[in-house]
Specification:
24% of the residues lie in helices and 33% in strands. The strands form two sheets. Strands 1-7-6-5-4-3-2 form a seven-stranded antiparallel β-sheet. The chain has a seven-stranded antiparallel β-sheet with strand order 8-14-13-12-11-10-9. It is globular and about 60 Å long. By secondary structure, it is an alpha+beta fold. It has two domains: 153 residues, START domain (Alpha-D-Glucose-1,6-Bisphosphate, Chain A, domain 4, 2-Layer Sandwich); 164 residues, 2-Layer Sandwich (Alpha-D-Glucose-1,6-Bisphosphate, Chain A, domain 4), CATH 3.30.530. The relative contact order is 0.16. β4 and β5 form a beta hairpin. The chain contains nine helices and 14 strands.
Length: 319
């Protein structure tokens, strides 16, 4: 797993729009975070407040994503106004997006944190996982309590994730991943059946189940979300896998940072894990393939041996 990227997920038993409205309001951070407390409003989407991992105030800013089939936004933080170097993408997946056809009526909260190696402190690295895990639980409780629940709602799915650093330009990596003709190169469990177009094709999974795979890309100007939807032909099953590509320059607030972070996630139904066709538990292995092939296309063949994680430019010189 990429060591500068942290992901936290939770199923929340409320309507997706209820969660979205709540999370867009930065003053609500005071109700569920360890110590993010908004003190002074700067503009419509920006506040100055305290923070759990700092002894000084931070600017907090929210940036919304448009055009997605689910809600998405970024929390951004920094020590100076409009100079935000901590980036936290958040996505809210309705239950019927995570598991098409379900009767479940909740939302899957997915929170990604990028911590650049040039700016992270020992405290942030030691605390981010425990703090964000606890805060996700507090968020779930705050929203479900307001909906009248007296205990945690259980979701039918769990969110599976894996992140990897890819030493390749953003345009090269997104172009490679959005073209399904490349699927059988990096998706080692897929076998193409006939011609495959850039956005759709017929495949067999590892057990010979026929399926139609389609892809859709959503551009955020400085990052991109790619959706893969598999529709099995011998059942009513549909599965979705997502790939978020974020240039390291944006993720870590470092204009000179090269390459991208590839963060992939999928949804596995708890009751059916291990028995449903291709539950997509192999995204980590596929990420290794994607990293190797994309870096080779970029001419950066020495990067693969350095592992899954981004290191700052000066660290490359000693690697």
């Amino acid at each position: 797993m990429e060591k500068n990227t942290f992901a936290t997920s939770a199923y929340i038993g409320v309507e997706p729009q209820t969660a979205f409205r709540y999370l867009q309001d930065l003053t609500k951070l005071g109700e569920w975070t360890l110590y993010s407390r908004m003190k002074e409003q700067v503009d419509e989407d920006t506040w100055i407040g305290t923070a759990s991992g700092y002894q000084q105030s931070l600017y907090y800013h929210i940036r919304r994503f448009e055009g997605l089939p689910f809600a998405g936004f970024e929390w951004q933080c920094g020590l100076e106004y409009k100079q935000y170097y901590h980036v936290y993408p958040v996505f809210l997946f309705p239950s019927d997006y995570a598991e098409p056809g379900t009767s479940e009526n909740g939302v899957y909260f997915h929170w990604i944190s990028f911590v650049g190696p040039k700016r992270r402190t020992p405290l942030i690295m030691e605390g981010i996982d425990i703090v964000h895990t606890s805060e996700a639980r507090a968020l779930k409780a705050a929203l479900e309590r307001s909906a009248g629940l007296r205990g945690p709602a259980a979701g039918r799915c769990r969110v599976k994730t894996h992140s990897v650093y890819v030493d390749a330009p953003f345009e090269l990596l997104t172009g490679y991943l959005t073209d399904l003709a490349n699927m059988t190169d990096w998706g080692h469990l897929w076998r193409a059946q006939g011609a495959v177009s850039p956005s759709q094709g017929t495949f067999l999974d590892e057990y010979g189940h026929p399926l139609t795979l389609a892809t859709q890309a959503y551009d955020f100007s400085d990052s991109c979300m790619i959706e893969y939807e598999a529709a099995y032909r011998d059942s009513n099953l549909r599965t979705r896998t997502l790939a978020l590509v974020v240039p390291c320059a944006h993720a870590f607030g470092e204009p000179s940072a090269r390459g991208c972070i590839l963060h992939r996630l999928t949804f596995v139904a708890v009751a059916e894990a291990g028995s449903r066709p291709y539950p997509r538990d192999d995204i980590a292995a596929e990420n290794l393939n994607i990293k190797r092939l994309a870096e080779a296309r970029a001419g950066n063949v020495a990067s693969l041996a350095r592992g899954f994680s981004y290191v700052a430019t000066e660290e490359y010189r000693t690697a």
